[in-house]
Model the fold of this input.
Amino acid sequence: MKRIVILISGRGSNMQAVAEACAREGWPATVAAVVSNRPQAAGLAWAAERGIATAVVDHTRFETRAAFDAALREAIDAFAPDLLVLAGFMRILGADFTRHYEGRMLNVHPSLLPAFTGLHTHRRAIEAGCKLAGATVHFVTAELDHGPIVAQAVVPVLPGDDEAALAGRVLRQEHRMYPMAVRWFVEGQLRVEGGVVHHVGGAAQLLV
Ligand code: GAR
Done:
């Protein structure tokens, strides 16, 4: 059984999608813990209600980014993860941290990377006049919102869309794509070569 630790900062709807799919589909994996940098993150209560261990490492209590990263790593490693799943985790992680979890840390980002790294992705996509938008699941590397791409989901940008409408349309696809990508990882179906992810079974990546 692969041990998954999920990192959140807020609502945790992607965390729910992953945890529910893991249980429902009988993956060879278990969600060992949910860790948040924000004590008030709504997702913590959801996890605790389902008997999933939770931990908080409050970033406001640390003077430096390095000290926060070290404490976060200690809290995570107490759960001996095989895979770290970032699900709306909104802190930038340092190079030492990302190196420690290299090849075993996934993130979902609400844009079609490498376009629109960083924040306010939906607003920026609308302002740029994009006709398509989406989300990306990728392995995390030291460079923010870069790293080998595991899966992407594409949605239309419709006339009259505001940020909330587009975010909702993208989020629904994140909820389908992220569990699928995490499942591929725990089943050992992903190989990274030269910065590119290959699906061992040769299956096409899904356009959801
Ligand atoms: C999701 O849309 C996710 O892609 C985004 O935050 C939202 C979290 O929602 N992540 C980032 O922007 C990371 N840079 P959730 O807490 O309901 O899963």
